[in-house]
Amino acid sequence: MRELTIRKNDAGQRLDRFLSKAMPLLPLALLQKYIRIKRVKCNNARCQRDQRLKEGDVLQLYINDEFFEQPREDNLFLTLFQPKLDVLYEDGHILLVNKRPGIVVHADETEKVNTLINHIQAYLYQKREWNPKWENSFTPALCNRIDRNTGGIVIAAKDAETLRIVTAKIRDREITKKYLCITLGRMDPPQGKLECFLLKDEGKKQVSVFRHPVPGGKSSATLYRTLESRGELSLTEAELLTGRTHQIRASFADAGHPLLGDGKYGRGNVNRRYGETRQALYSYYVRFDFPTDAGCLEYMRGRVFQVECVPFVEKYFSK
């Protein structure tokens, strides 16, 4: 419990508005709840959110210490009162989430609060499975990431050993990841492998495709399989053999079959005609192959997880 004494400059304010400024990390909805259930008192008596504070009033606050801290990038998850997650699978070590298109996985120059990792940390915090005050160093973390406008499965680790194992398994290609996408035109042949070298331009946040090695370029390999074609659109499955930035988007565009809705590598006139502003790309399938020892995640060997409903598939390829 903490106490705050109202001074002259704070007198006259509504209780809820004063507390929202005194504790900027505390979500307003949670603050209102705390007032209602008497975890906020004024002069040891029940109070109302709209009551006016007087000089000399003493507030008794039965609120977690972390809400009294100043906002920083590593504690902004506290401001999410109702984390929004589509959880595909969860146990004591690992969490698989179906990320919706439009949300960033980590904070960037455009978004600091509404990120996937913040929603995950808020979710685990509110379940009382994790609290930054309990740990010396580890924070729940993402094992893989996908672009803002790409949807699909993201793997999160609840502990350091899980993060280490999954990161290594992804690097060593012991976890199979497959995507669904809508490509323009029909691939010839309908099934095969796209191989190239990708050179990233950090300034433009874009990659260039080369058919031969270039300084700074990274090899890229993607298996693809055409599942269905309707008119100028094809539903294609892509399996990553490497994990490069914009690998699927750039590789298919270089092959002459960009993704529908792709604003960087696609065809603007076609995207506008269909009214699509996000690339039709979804990480819908993950298989934990684990041909070698998996430590605390040995029980995940052979497990498969799949997103059953992909919005653009329902829109363009429903029966």
Name a few traits of the molecule.
28% strand; four-stranded antiparallel beta sheet; 319 residues; elongated
Would you mind describing this structure in some detail?
The chain has 319 residues and is α+β, with helices and mostly antiparallel strands. 19% of the residues lie in helices and 28% in strands. It has helices at residues 15-22, 28-36, 116-126, 160-171, 247-254, 268-274, 311-317, and strands at 2-5, 40-42, 45-46, 58-61, 87-90, 94-99, 141-142, 151-157, 175-184, 191-201, 206-210, 218-230, 233-240, 281-288, 304-306. The longest helix is centred in the middle third of the chain and has 12 residues, at 160-171. It is elongated, with a radius of gyration of 24 Å. 33% of the residues are buried. The mean pLDDT is 94.
Distance between the termini: 59 Å
Computed Rg: 24 Å
Q: Tell me the overall shape.
A: elongated
* Unreliable runs: none
The proportion of residues forming helix, as a percent range, comes to 10-25%
Beta-strand proportion: 25-35%
Number of helices: 7
